[in-house]
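Form 7-S
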Amino acid sequence: MTDLLVTLTNNLIAWVASGKTYGFQHMVHWIAKATTHFSVGNYFPSFTWMDRLSGLLREADEIFKESDDLFEGVIEEHVNKKDFGIKGHDLVDILLEIQKDKSTGFELERYMIKAIILNMYGAGTDTTSTSLVWAIGELLRNPRVMKELQQEAQRFLNSPMDYIGSHFEYLPFGAGRRGCPGIKFAATINELVLANLAFKFEFALEGEHSLDMSDTDGMTAHKKYPILVKATLYE
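Output:
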C-alpha cells in the first residue's frame, strides 16, 4: 500500500510540476531515508569530520549529484519542449519565464529552479503519501469510522475547526509565514484519494498480519512497518 501511494502522489506532483512523469520515486525515498541519519556536524561543526567518516557527507554528495543531473534533464526538456513532445504549461515553464523576465528585480538562477523542483517532488511526495498511509491505518484500526466514511453518515462541513493556523491544537501544515505553501494542493489530493479509495474498495489486513502503528525517526514520521492490506470492490 505504501509504495502505491508514493507512486500515486509522485506522479500527480510530476504532472503539475513538470508536465509528465519521470519516475523519481527512488530519489524521494533516498532523500527521505537520508534525513533519518543523525548529523553530528549540524550540532557541533568542529566534529563534521565524524559525518565524513560515517559516510553521511558522501551520501549527501551522491544525492546532490544524481538529483542535479535529473533536474537538469527536466529543465532541458522544457527549454526544448517541441523536440521532446511536452505539451501544456506547468511549474517548470513558469519558472523559466520568470528567469527570462528582467523586470522582476531579481535573478532566478538555474540552480534555484532545480531546488524548487526538488522541494516540490521531495516535500510533496513524502508528506502527502505518508499522511495517506497513516489515514488508511487509522481507518483500518477503526472499522466503525471506515463504515461511516463509506456511507457518508457524518459530515463536518460546518465545523469551526480548521487546519490553516486558526486553531493551535491542530496544525498539520504549520502557520504564519512559515506555513506550508502546498496546503491546498495537499488537502485536495488527500481528500480525493481517500474518498475514492473508501468509495470503491473494502480494505482488510492481509492474512495474519497485525496493524503496528509504530513510527520512525526523521523529518517525516513514517510508519515503521508497511500496511499489508487486501482490497476488494466495495458493494
